[in-house]
Amino acid sequence: MKIALLGYGRMGKTIEKLALERNHTIVYKTSSGINKEELQQADVAIDFSIPTAAIENITSAFKLQVPVISGTTGWLENYDEVVKTCNQLNGTFLYASNFSLGVNLFFNLNEHLAKLMKNHEQYQVSLEEIHHTQKLDEPSGTAISLAEGIINHSSLTDWKLVEQEDENAGKSIPVTAKRIENVPGTHSISYKSAVDDIEIKHTAHSREGFALGAVIAAEWINGKKGMYSMKDVLQLNNL
Ligand SMILES: NC(=O)C1=CN([C@@H]2O[C@H](COP(=O)(O)OP(=O)(O)OC[C@H]3O[C@@H](n4cnc5c(N)ncnc54)[C@H](O)[C@@H]3O)[C@@H](O)[C@H]2O)C=CC1
Ligand SMILES: O=C(O)C1=N[C@H](C(=O)O)C[C@H](O)C1
């Protein structure tokens, strides 16, 4: 498969290594803006760039009829607009806040736990994410997805970025974001009562899991039309 890498930083480079190991070819890579002639050589584009570039990169791929995978976080307030553009331009799109198999299983576990805890209001839920100090956005896209998973199954209505996890966030889920040198991505969800705590946690040991998930998604989407998610790729819909 011929792949275009839109964003050639930490993730772009890890994806390149895994894609080559899986016998794919990188036909185009960019760290600034799009060259249309080069992008249209690709079977699939993979965007891991920066929040302010993602929408333009994704839209360029739609216009050229190149299926696009995006893992860039920090632009999700415009997600509905991008879905509209994808439909108007008959494009192909898959966004995931986290492409690793482990985190996608963890998303499922989080929703199961939220359902279980729904009627036990003596437990206060909170969410913590830890990432490397170069990360541009906070909270992480993964933390937002986890918060949405809890909101879908509880009486909480929103999430709120707070300094301290015990800060009163009202009907919102308090989310803390810590930045520590070289941490690839750690997410934990705690339910705390006066007498005990329940906690689930996912710790990425490197970027390889994210990159492998993105390449698997690119292989899966090649030749398809429309909007998809990692639930489609990993067939996690009916768990
Ligand atoms: N969904 C997932 O599984 C994961 C998502 N991410 C997200 O992916 C994004 C990239 O992460 P990293 O690779 O760690 O960041 P990075 O900072 O190492 O790489 C971003 C690259 O994008 C380039 N860039 C800037 N403007 C551009 C443009 N107009 N077009 C193309 N490239 C452009 C930068 O020069 C840089 O090389 C972030 O938003 C991060 O949150 C990161 C890891 C996993
Ligand atoms: O910026 C990162 O590094 C990561 N970003 C994603 C996010 O915002 O959730 C995924 C992963 O945690 C690493």
Automatic annotation (TrEMBL):
> Which function does this protein serve?
Catalyzes the conversion of 4-hydroxy-tetrahydrodipicolinate (HTPA) to tetrahydrodipicolinate.
Q: What is its EC number?
A: 1.17.1.8
Q: In which pathway does it act?
A: Amino-acid biosynthesis; L-lysine biosynthesis via DAP pathway; (S)-tetrahydrodipicolinate from L-aspartate: step 4/4
Cross-referenced Pfam families: DapB_C (PF05173), DapB_N (PF01113)
What name has this protein been given in UniProt?
A: 4-hydroxy-tetrahydrodipicolinate reductase
Reactions it catalyzes: (S)-2,3,4,5-tetrahydrodipicolinate + NAD(+) + H2O = (2S,4S)-4-hydroxy-2,3,4,5-tetrahydrodipicolinate + NADH + H(+); (S)-2,3,4,5-tetrahydrodipicolinate + NADP(+) + H2O = (2S,4S)-4-hydroxy-2,3,4,5-tetrahydrodipicolinate + NADPH + H(+)
Q: How does it assemble?
A: Homotetramer.
* Ligand binding (NADP(+)): K36
Span of domain Dihydrodipicolinate reductase N-terminal: 1-99
Q: Extract the InterPro entries matched here.
A: DapB_C, DapB_N, DHDPR_bac, NAD(P)-bd_dom_sf
List the catalytic residues. H131 (proton donor/acceptor), K135 (proton donor)
Q: Which family does it belong to?
A: Belongs to the DapB family.
What do the Gene Ontology cellular component annotations say? cytosol
Biological process (GO) annotations held by this record are: diaminopimelate biosynthetic process; lysine biosynthetic process via diaminopimelate
Positions annotated to bind NAD(+): G71, T72, T73, A96, S97, N98, F99
State the SUPFAM superfamilies in the record: Glyceraldehyde-3-phosphate dehydrogenase-like, C-terminal domain (SSF55347), NAD(P)-binding Rossmann-fold domains (SSF51735)
Molecular function (GO) terms listed?
Answer: 4-hydroxy-tetrahydrodipicolinate reductase; NAD binding; NADP binding; oxidoreductase activity, acting on CH or CH2 groups, NAD or NADP as acceptor
**Chief location bin:** cytoplasm
Keywords attached to this entry: Amino-acid biosynthesis, Cytoplasm, Diaminopimelate biosynthesis, Lysine biosynthesis, NAD, NADP, Oxidoreductase
Q: What class of enzyme is it?
A: oxidoreductase
What is the top-level taxon of the source organism? Bacteria
Which cellular compartments is it found in? Cytoplasm
Domain named Dihydrodipicolinate reductase C-terminal: residues = 102-234
Gene that produces this protein:
dapB
Looking at the UniProt entry, the stretches that span the membrane are none
Q: Where does (S)-2,3,4,5-tetrahydrodipicolinate bind?
A: H132, G141, T142
